[in-house]
Amino acid sequence: MASPKASSSFVQLELRGPVALVRLARPSKRNALSDAVVLALRDTFENLPDTVRAAVLDGEGPHFCAGLDLSELQERDAGAGLHHSRMWHAALERVQFGPVPVIAALHGAVVGGGLELASACHIRVADSSTFYALPEGSRGIFVGGGGSVRIPKLIGAARMADMMLTGRVYNAEDGERAGFAQYLVPEGTALDKALELAARVAQNAPLTNYALMHALPRIAEQPADQGFFTEALMAAIAQSAPEAKQRVRAFLDGKAAKVGKR
Q1: Any residues with CB less than 8 A from the CB of 222 and at least 6 apart, and which?
Q2: What is the CA angle 38-85-101, rounded to 5?
Q3: Element (H or E) spanning 148, and its range?
Q4: Which of 14, 72, 75, 116 is catalytic?
Q5: What is the pLDDT of residue 7?
């Protein structure tokens, strides 16, 4: 199946020191996800500069992302539909298992494919305008961007089924309680909070961040005996890094800040 050419005009990249700000740039379409947008996201995260240590994903305008661009919805046979879904999987995998942690700045609509995209990020910051929905059930379709795998890990399979069966919409406050977001902030401040968190994340040792992105979710799905062994391997690798040794030495010498209330 031929893939549409990715267009960088749909996804903007701005570097702020070690933080990359990646922004969906289709505000007139509520940042709906066309194939071109999905491929542009894939290419952006695959080609982040080596200087980047964390990323923030934002949406231009009043909405983060209103989901699949239904104007692109095509009649496909089963094979074409399978390959199309797998293309989305590969693109969103570059967000979840890319080079750096990704913080999503959520506001307005986080709907359908937009929720699938947000669930691929590592930290989600929602402002009070945010709402979450999965309208695929009422449209006769099913999630195809990895949502059936990622979203139940955030809120549980029963809640996801309820949303798709009944059209239930979660507001920002109920969404935070359900597990969609780890942070809830006043309207208009999600991006500032996400950038603040990204700057903090960027200060971590890169290998530790890599372990949290790539090892932790896999350990969580392993049987306990395998998880303990994988953890031991990752701990040994992380602590052997020169930067880790320097950081521990600085702490022991009283040159590093101690943990306290923020």
Answers
A1: 230
A2: 50
A3: helix 147-155
A4: 116
A5: 44
Q: What is the pLDDT of residues 198-223, one digit of tens each?
A: 999 999 999 999 999 999 999 999 99
Q: Based on the residue annotation, tell me whether 136 is a catalytic residue of this protein.
A: yes
The catalytic position among 136, 176, 221, 243 is 136
- Tokens 């109920």, located at residue: 174
Domain ranges in the chain are 8-201, 206-252
- pLDDT interval class at 257 (50, 70, 90): low
Which residues have a Cβ under 8 Å from the Cβ of 151 and sit 6 or more positions away?
115, 116, 119, 134, 143, 160
- With bands split at pLDDT 50, 70 and 90, how would you rate the model's confidence at 2? very low
| Helices and strands in the chain, H and E counts | 11, 9
190-205 in b/e form (b: 16+ CB < 10 A) is bbebbbebbbebbebb
Q: What is the pLDDT of residue 90?
A: 97
14 catalytic per annotation: no
CATH code for the domain defined by 206-252: 1.10.12.10
Q: Say if residue 162's pLDDT is above 80.
A: yes
Selecting from 3.90.226.10, 1.10.357.10, 3.90.1720.10, 2.60.120.560, what CATH number does the domain 8-201 have?
3.90.226.10
The candidate with the shortest Cα–Cα distance to 146, out of 115, 179, 173, is: 115
* pLDDT at residue 258 is higher than 90: no
The pair of structure tokens assigned to 128 is 């009070």
Task: Please report the pLDDT score of residue 100 as a whole number.
Answer: 98
Dihedral sign from CA coordinates of 154, 157, 161, 162: negative
